Amino acid sequence: MRGEDCLADGNGLPDPSRADAGDGSGRSIGSHVLLIGFMGAGKSTVARRLARRYGKASFDTDAGISRMVGKSIPEIFSDEGEQTFRRYECEYLQYLKDMEPGIVSCGGGIVTYEGSRRALRELGFVVYLDVSVDEVYRRISSTESRPNLSDDRRRTEELYESRLPLYMECADLVVDTNGKSSSAVARELGNILVERGVIG
Ligand code: S3P
């Protein structure tokens, strides 16, 4: 784990070998496709669909961190605080540098941490899945499993607005997901990535 890239204080993620996917060989070939965007953008489902369609490894920062730490995301937030979670995200991205290239679903707030923005750029091709706040509330029925998604719409809009420039700063490509199913988004994005020679 390259904790120094995340300004960690040495108290980082335990045992990366317990993370999901990757062949564990330490190879570094090509680069990843990383999906960023607000909660409810469909990153996890689209990443899984794309990975299956193109025979790639699939990674999920939330699932990987949760497995490594041995706690759910809400538990990490309440026990250790959001800042520690952001550092875990950054450290997870460092871990991905040694994994076979795959499709990576990133937690919605990953771009708020400078070390993570740097790591995203280093890791590969970054796709921003755009979703409106209206659509977020249509897609997500319960805010329980997401500590940063409020029932208070104004707070969500503020969070959304504050993140928008950060998503745009990191993105190599923007895909509008509004009114589209995850399979339609995966198909559209897959075609663009093939066209651009990002995946084969
Ligand atoms: C968060 C988004 C979540 C998860 C955590 C914090 C955020 O991921 O990382 O609850 O701050 O936007 P999803 O975007 O996959 O819901």
Short description:
With 200 residues, this protein is of the alpha/beta class.
Count of distinct strands: 5
Helices and strands, in order, run as: EHEHHHEHEHHEH
Strand order of the biggest β-sheet? 2-3-1-4-5
Proportion of residues in β-strands: 5-15%
Major sheet characteristics: 5 strands, parallel
Bound molecules: shikimate-3-phosphate
Q: Give unreliable regions as ranges.
A: 21-29
Radius of gyration equals: 16 Å
Mean of pLDDT: 90
Using the alpha-carbon principal axes, give the shape: globular
Distance between the termini: 29 Å
Oligomerization category of the chains in this entry: single chain
Task: Please identify the structural class as seen in this structure.
Answer: alpha/beta
Percentage of residues assigned to helices = 40-55%
Q: How many helical elements?
A: 8
Write structural notes for this entry:
This protein has 200 residues and is of the alpha/beta class. Helices cover 46% and strands 12% of the residues. The chain contains eight helices and five strands, in the order E-H-E-H-H-H-E-H-E-H-H-E-H. The protein has helices at 43-54, 61-69, 73-80, 82-96, 114-123, 133-139, 153-170, 182-195, and strands spanning 32-36, 57-60, 102-105, 124-130, 173-176. It has a five-stranded parallel beta sheet, sandwiched between helices. Helix 2 crosses helix 4, helix 3 (73-80) packs across helix 4 and helix 4 (82-96) runs parallel beside helix 5. The longest helix is centred in the C-terminal third of the chain and has 18 residues, at 153-170. The protein is globular and about 45 Å long. It starts with 31 loop residues before the first strand and ends in a 5-residue tail after the last helix. 39% of the residues are buried.
